[in-house]
Amino acid sequence: MRLYYWLMGVLFPPKCVLCGKILGKDQLDLCRECRESAPAYPFGKRKGQFLDSFAAVWYYEGNVRSSLLRFKFHGARHYAAAYGRLLAMKLQSGYPEGFDVLTWVPVSPLRKLRRGYDQVALLAKAVGRELGMTPVPLLRKVRHNRPQSRIQGEAERRANVLGAYRIRRGAEISGKRILLLDDILTTGATAGEAARMLKTAGAAEVHCAAVAAAGKE
User: Fold this and answer.
1) How many structural domains is the chain composed of?
2) Which domain holds residue 133?
3) I want to staple 30 with a disulfide (CB 3.0 to 4.6 A). Which of 35, 177, 184, 195 is the partner?
4) Is 107 within a domain?
5) Single pTM value for the model
6) Is residue 202 part of a domain?
7) 26 domain residue, yes or no
8) Region of residue 63 (phi > 0: left; psi between -120 and 50: alpha; otherwise: beta)
9) What pLDDT is recorded for position 162?
10) Alpha helices (H) along 116-209
11) What percent of the chain has pLDDT above 90?
12) Is 215 a residue whose pLDDT tops 60?
């Protein structure tokens, strides 16, 4: 078994999840340059529509944006483990009180079929491993709407996701403090619509966390 892991390390050395540089022996997930220069998203319990707070690891720009596009559209599903570790660290420092339930914003069945995976479900599993929580699917996507990335303007984005989600049958939500994961937050329209459904179903609080968020203040 040791020989197997050694051989895999030689053939497929670990690389920085942002820039792709081969990592040194003392490095995990990020090279030294990216760890120091990646545009960190400052922690502060910012609120959004129907969201009690939201947090992110980085701003959605530069190498962060390129990395997430590879994760989301180009099959780099193995990035989920690194993202999960980094996001979990942010959550542990910012939310010491923890959460009752960990869930995520799902993609539509058609999009999952075309892509081959639900990238946010992979992220939820990775974050769950770090936090000692099992992700629970509370939402299902019932409408295959246009990708938010192709729509300009907050109002248009909110209209595009309105009614796109439903609560799964048998989901235990009432009175729960929920951690809702997404990969990217731009205007927050998608996460806000998912949170609206969770709040309507009786959730006490909904807090969103993502790998990256758009727009420096």
Assistant:
1) 1
2) 39-213
3) 35
4) yes
5) 0.89
6) yes
7) no
8) alpha
9) 75
10) 119-131, 154-161, 189-200
11) 74
12) yes
